[in-house]
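Action item from last meeting closed. Structure (230 res):
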């Protein structure tokens, strides 16, 4: 991984690490360390352990403050639906973290870069690195900007994959091919914003705006999904 890849990541997520080694460690998988024993790199499993605890705390705090009327049992279930492999993998995918991870050849060939378990662990290690580098307030700010807005507020707090949901619904009612088109890229490199249209059978059904192409596509798909008949 080149340093400019790290720079792009930090600019896109509006973060600036004080300790570059921590950021590199967060994205170093054990398979890479095993194949590059002379590199001196540390893998991310210890950061993953720490990040899990930090997420448990910050997500609990978010739920406690956001839903003051909900009882302990319900808050516990809501937290479990956020701090779990499917949701954390979705967060990592949404933020396009997988493209930056250092993998061994075998893990790469097995498709590890897109494996949900690996992505979920990667998200935890990234949060652990932010915490060690900048503290709890920085983690809160990062989650508030990039994660919490994508969590449903109706109690079922799994982030929905609207692209998959839209595909299923469009196929069910035989509407035709789905196409996502980037219509605009705006803002400076450190604050980039993408505008994406989703067309079904050449007809515009939704428009989304996001800090990544995937995020904008999900927003567009969500709008289109709501417009389609059941």
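Sequence:
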């Amino acid at each position: 991984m080149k340093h400019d890849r790290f720079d792009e990541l930090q600019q896109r997520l509006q973060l600036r690490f004080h300790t570059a080694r921590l950021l590199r460690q967060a994205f170093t998988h054990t398979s890479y360390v095993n194949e590059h024993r002379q590199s001196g790199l540390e893998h991310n499993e210890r950061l993953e352990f720490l990040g899990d605890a930090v997420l448990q705390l910050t997500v609990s705090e978010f739920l406690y403050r956001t839903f003051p009327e909900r009882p302990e049992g319900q808050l516990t279930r809501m937290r479990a639906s956020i701090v779990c492999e499917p949701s954390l993998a979705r967060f990592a995918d949404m933020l396009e973290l997988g493209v930056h991870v250092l993998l061994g050849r075998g893990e790469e060939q097995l498709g590890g870069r897109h494996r949900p378990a690996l992505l979920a662990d990667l998200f935890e290690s990234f949060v652990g690195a932010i915490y060690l580098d900048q503290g709890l307030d920085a983690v809160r700010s990062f989650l508030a900007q990039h994660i919490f807005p994508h969590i449903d507020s109706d109690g079922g707090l799994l982030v929905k994959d609207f692209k998959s949901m839209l595909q299923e619904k469009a196929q069910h009612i035989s509407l035709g091919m789905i196409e996502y088109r980037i219509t605009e890229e705006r803002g400076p490199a450190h604050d980039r914003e993408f505008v994406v249209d989703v067309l079904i059978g050449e007809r515009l059904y939704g428009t989304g705006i996001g800090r990544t192409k995937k995020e904008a596509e999900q927003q567009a798909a969500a709008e289109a999904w709501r417009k389609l008949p059941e």
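Note appended to the action item: The chain has a mean pLDDT of 87.
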